Amino acid sequence: QIPWLDEKLQQSSAAWKVLVDHRPVYSSGEVHGSSANLQKSLVPVLKKRGVQVVLNGDDHILEVLKDDTNITYFVSGGGSWLHKPKRGIPAPGKSLWKQSVNGFFIFDFHCNGGKALLSATGMDLDGKPVWSGNVSQGAG
Predict the structure, then answer these.
(1) Average of per-residue pLDDT values in the chain
(2) What positions carry a catalytic annotation?
(3) Cα(65)–Cα(14) distance, rounded to whole angstroms?
C-alpha cells in the first residue's frame, strides 16, 4: 500500500494533502499508542509528498501531535469507550494536546488574509469545545 500511496500523492496537485487512516502514526493512547512501523515506512512518504495533516482514530482519545517533519496528526477516537492517554510524549511526535474525552474534531479549510488554514476544534459530546488550533497550508 505504501508504494501505491506514494504514487497517488506524487500525481496529486492538490494544495492540501490530508491522509485519513485508521492506525495512528503517533498516539499517547494506552492501548495502541504510536506505531514505529508507520513512522519508518509511511512518514518519509508523507514528508516527501508534502502531506500537511494526518487524521486517524483507533486509540479512543482526542489528541493533536506534530512530528519533527512538521506534519500535524489528529487522533479522533473518542466516539466510543475511552482509553487513558499515556503520560509523556510519544517520541518523536510532540503531543500538543490530549484528553481522554468522548468527542470528535470539526475541521474547516479556509483563507485568512490570503493564507490557507485548516482550523480544527475538538468537541465533547455536549458540543462544547475542548481544544482549538490552526494548521497552515505550508506546514507539511
Answers:
(1) 87
(2) 32
(3) 23
